[in-house]
Amino acid sequence: MAILVLMRHGQSVWNLENKFTGWVDVELSDKGKEEAKKAGDQLKGLHFDYAYSSALKRAQETLQIALDEAEINNIPTKFDRALNERMYGDLQGLNKAETAKKFGDEQVHIWRRSYDVAPPNGESLKDTADRVIPYFESEIVPKIKDGKNIIIAAHGNSLRALVMFLEKMSPEEIIKFEIATGVPRLYELDSNLHVLKVKNL
């Protein structure tokens, strides 16, 4: 049996300002740093063999703060943009409320919550899954099958792609599924990647 923990980064400064962030490399807010510390408190007593994060500093900072708080040291860590947040294209940097006024609530809702409709010059959740899942299967799955414990710090949409894969959710189910900032989600998995137990810490 292996443990896999998925952890969305703490609140970022653009989460706080209600902006579409995507691949823009913004930092954690003060609240986000506190969320990361609280996550670390929930991780105390767990053992990890490997850690992964996206290439964006809000995920990397969350991972480091949480591991420090949990007193988990010196584990091999990889950063890869395959785990980055969904690329929001022309919406990046725009305030969500202003964007809804400009394009209409219904259109923005479709861009944000549909599975396979991308915003202009951006990625849909399906596009995000198409880069997250192959990386997960090639880089991380062999370690899980070998009984290694893994923690991944990433983003709302890249983690939803993994939740969909692990929990065998449909597109309709995953678009309704929310991942809170700074709340670790723990899976116990067998060597065939079957979920034995899942819970938020």
From TrEMBL:
<dbReference type="InterPro" id="IPR001345">
    <property type="entry name" value="PG/BPGM_mutase_AS"/>
</dbReference>
<dbReference type="GO" id="GO:0006094">
    <property type="term" value="P:gluconeogenesis"/>
</dbReference>
<feature type="binding site">
    <location>
        <begin position="8"/>
        <end position="15"/>
    </location>
    <ligand>
        <name>substrate</name>
    </ligand>
</feature>
<comment type="similarity">
    <text>Belongs to the phosphoglycerate mutase family. BPG-dependent PGAM subfamily.</text>
</comment>
<keyword id="KW-0413">Isomerase</keyword>
<feature type="active site" description="Proton donor/acceptor">
    <location>
        <position position="85"/>
    </location>
</feature>
<comment type="function">
    <text>Catalyzes the interconversion of 2-phosphoglycerate and 3-phosphoglycerate.</text>
</comment>
<dbReference type="GO" id="GO:0006096">
    <property type="term" value="P:glycolytic process"/>
</dbReference>
<dbReference type="InterPro" id="IPR029033">
    <property type="entry name" value="His_PPase_superfam"/>
</dbReference>
<feature type="binding site">
    <location>
        <begin position="112"/>
        <end position="113"/>
    </location>
    <ligand>
        <name>substrate</name>
    </ligand>
</feature>
<feature type="binding site">
    <location>
        <begin position="156"/>
        <end position="157"/>
    </location>
    <ligand>
        <name>substrate</name>
    </ligand>
</feature>
<protein>
    <recommendedName>
        <fullName>2,3-bisphosphoglycerate-dependent phosphoglycerate mutase</fullName>
        <ecNumber>5.4.2.11</ecNumber>
    </recommendedName>
</protein>
<feature type="site" description="Transition state stabilizer">
    <location>
        <position position="155"/>
    </location>
</feature>
<feature type="active site" description="Tele-phosphohistidine intermediate">
    <location>
        <position position="9"/>
    </location>
</feature>
<keyword id="KW-0312">Gluconeogenesis</keyword>
<keyword id="KW-0324">Glycolysis</keyword>
<comment type="pathway">
    <text>Carbohydrate degradation; glycolysis; pyruvate from D-glyceraldehyde 3-phosphate: step 3/5.</text>
</comment>
<feature type="binding site">
    <location>
        <begin position="85"/>
        <end position="88"/>
    </location>
    <ligand>
        <name>substrate</name>
    </ligand>
</feature>
<dbReference type="Pfam" id="PF00300">
    <property type="entry name" value="His_Phos_1"/>
</dbReference>
<feature type="binding site">
    <location>
        <position position="58"/>
    </location>
    <ligand>
        <name>substrate</name>
    </ligand>
</feature>
<feature type="binding site">
    <location>
        <position position="96"/>
    </location>
    <ligand>
        <name>substrate</name>
    </ligand>
</feature>
<feature type="binding site">
    <location>
        <begin position="21"/>
        <end position="22"/>
    </location>
    <ligand>
        <name>substrate</name>
    </ligand>
</feature>
<dbReference type="InterPro" id="IPR005952">
    <property type="entry name" value="Phosphogly_mut1"/>
</dbReference>
<dbReference type="GO" id="GO:0004619">
    <property type="term" value="F:phosphoglycerate mutase activity"/>
</dbReference>
<dbReference type="InterPro" id="IPR013078">
    <property type="entry name" value="His_Pase_superF_clade-1"/>
</dbReference>
